Amino acid sequence: MSLIKEYWHKLSSAKHFYPIAGALLPWLLIPALIMLAWASWQGLVVAPADYQQGDSYRIIFVHVPAAWLSMMAYMIMAVNGVIYLVWKIKLADIVAASAAPIGASFTFLALATGSLWGKPMWGAWWVWDARLTSELVLLFLYLGTIALRGAIDDRQRAGRAAGLLGLIGAINIPIIHFSVEWWETLHQPATVSKFGAPSMHPSMLVPLLVMAIAFTLFFFAVLMIKIRAGILEQERHSRWLAALYSDSGTSSISPAATGNSIEQDESK
Amino acid sequence: MMLCALRKQFAREMLGAFRQPGDALAPVVFYLIVGTLFPLALGADPQLLVKIGPGAIWIAALLAVLLSLHKLFRADLDNGYLDQLLLLPCPLFLLIGARLLAHWLQTGLPILLVTPLLAESFGLDYNLLPVLLASLAIGTPVLLVLGAINEALTLASRGGALLALLVLPLYVPTLVFGSGAVYAVQFGESPAAHLSLLGALAVVSLLFSPWAVATALRISID
Amino acid sequence: MISTKNLAALRGERLLFRGVTFSLGPGEAMRITGANGSGKTTLLRILAGLSEPEQGQVSWGSQNIRDCREEYYRHLAYSGHQFGLRGDLTALENLRYLLPRTTTDAALVETMQQVGLERCVDLPARYLSQGQRRRLILARLLAAEASCWILDEPLAALDTAGIKMVESLCAEHLQNAGILIITSHQNLSSALGGIAELRLG
User: Fold this and answer.
1) CB under 8 Å to A176, separation ≥6 — which residues?
2) A154 → closest Cβ in C12, C15, C18
3) What is the pLDDT of residues C127-140, one digit of tens each?
């Protein structure tokens, strides 16, 4: 039990997580790029055209994983936000702040690809489909959280406010999904979901799943990069960081008057 | 002492409204104005107005509540009363509840009273009035308490148009269920499902929001 | 009794103070001094429980104030830079709503007389001068029956008569086994007896 506690303590400390994130990075990025390449080729070239939608269905290989990622990223952001709010672990705040823009980008990607899909199918750049509308609302949640964080000057306060908002959003998302689907059936009684994925042949399903895994790995790779940047910014006055980089001979980073920061080594 | 503090909090908010009646009536006036804008922009075709009426009235109510949110905390933050509020020997979420109740009486209740006028201006059938009033009666408190969370969170921020983004995610379910209930009756169906969903939303948000607002206030004041 | 252990506070990324530890019992007073920006107001707000310290804790009796908020606030009266007065309410009404316990208007008017505000009872608060507002806050302190007073710059904007009034009220408070924590640029008269001093920055 104390081993777990020790692990947790190490993991939640920026000082220890920084090199871990760096070490994980190539293991995430390289498989991600390989899988992206393979799945793209499979999905865009190899898989047969759908008999109903023709070739335009192929956009689901990007649209669906992007939508999945947008939800997963939000959960990661919300969970870390709550961890910061309750236990005040600064690394959690960095993770939440880093996940937000990446998640927002995936949401935007899902919306854009959804729109691109809709054009050849329904002749319009935007359709008020339940899922697209839900994604749009999710995008607003993301952008609002990012805006809130940016609009509050005090860093700690911003992190706590964003954490609370993330929690509220997370509770709200299932309610929004449900209400938007309700809304769709209310006003368009006999609707087949406009974006129903074609029944999936294995040759389509496998690249889709591989693409989803690739997106996930890519997300975490970018997340690691952003977390490292966040740690650099937060810990720029600390001694361990200066020591880490002064080994390489760069003397331009000097530990700023160390009396200026409460020692972070032992605390979270 | 706790009950007394709650009573006094409520009394303070109500008294303040009577001292500044213009301020207090602004949301209702705005509600009527927005309602009037629809036929002006869309044309006064009676059939069209009947069709868009329930939705337009709901939008007007939503915007009116949204507009009234700034009165909740901003002034007391500026004059230092919010500090004193947090220092009362009474659970903060209860005090918030008392304050929100007072504000609903100043915003939501007048909206309800004036709704028949607006319904008439859209030419809505009389049988829609009960469900319209019921949906607004349940829905406006929800809009108020959810908006209060937004307001409390952004109290410490520099503000900005981007923060209005938060409105949509919070308000979509209420708007859908509320206006849906009225449309159900217009289509000749029962509004029971919509109203019960709205009611469930109301119960959850009324129970949860005062706590969320209290937490957000503590964060903003820190 | 109020005590702190190892308090530290940040503003943004700047460390304001650390290692602040003290305890005050009934009848004891403390004056916090320091240059502008050294964290005096922040310390007071942390003591009142309005801000969270970066490190350390504040205790009322033997409990952390976070665990006994209501109990602590029953005995606390805090007065900050702003007075918490609502402009469109009268002075009397403001006083009434600043006090959580049951009060009668007659008793409040009497308290206002004690601080020299008998002519301002029904005046909307926005017409009060700075000095009059200060006195209203004094009236509130008198009426609050709190055993712990935390005052931020209580002497600011007061004339000599006002300053004397504050000092005598504080002295009386201490004699009644109250606790006093203030920040002040000015020296308080020796009428208050021995005051511990805490210098920040």
Assistant:
1) A134, A137, A138, B169, B172, B173
2) C12
3) 998 888 988 998 99
What single string gives the DSSP state of each residue in B52-85?
Answer: HHHHHHHHHHHHHHHHHGGGTTHHHHHHTHHHHH
Q: In chain C, where are the structural domains located? A: 1-75+146-157+179-201
Contact C83, C156 (CB under 8 A): no
Tokens read off for A208: 């889709």
- Tens of pLDDT, residues B92-132: 999 999 999 999 999 999 999 999 999 999 999 999 999 99
Interface mutation target, options A179, A180, A185, chain B, most CBs of B under 10 Å: A179
Predicted local distance difference test score (pLDDT) of residue C192? 61
Report residue B175: phi and psi, to 5°: -60, -45
Domains in chain B, number: 1
Determine the Cα–Cα distance for residues A120 and A100; give it in Å rounded to an integer: 31
How many Å apart are CA B14 and CA B104, to the nearest integer?
10
Partner residue opposite B172 with nearest CB, options A137, A143, A148? A137
Strand partners, A2: none
CA distances to A98, A230, A248, C14 from A253, rounded to whole Å, are 24, 17, 11, 19
**Mean pLDDT throughout B77-105?**
93
Chains in contact with B, counting 3 or more C-beta pairs less than 8 Å apart as contact: A, C
Put simply, the answer to whether B169 touches A169 (Cβ < 8 Å) is yes
**C15: closest chain A residue by CA:** A260
- pLDDT (tens digit, 9 = 90+) per residue, A193-226? 555 555 667 777 888 889 999 999 999 999 999 9
pLDDT at A258 over 50: no
Burial class from Cβ neighbours inside 10 Å (0-12, 13-18, 19+) for residue B128 reads buried
Indicate whether A189 pLDDT > 60: no
pLDDT band of A187, cuts 50, 70, 90: low
Distance from CA of B14 to the nearest CA of A (A): 29
Q: Which CATH class is domain C1-75+146-157+179-201?
A: alpha beta
Residue pair B16/B81 in contact by the 8 Å Cβ criterion: no
The ipTM value here is 0.89
Token digits of residue A115: 């729109």
Q: What domain range is B27 assigned to? A: 2-221
Say yes or no: B203 contacts chain A, CB-CB below 8 A: no
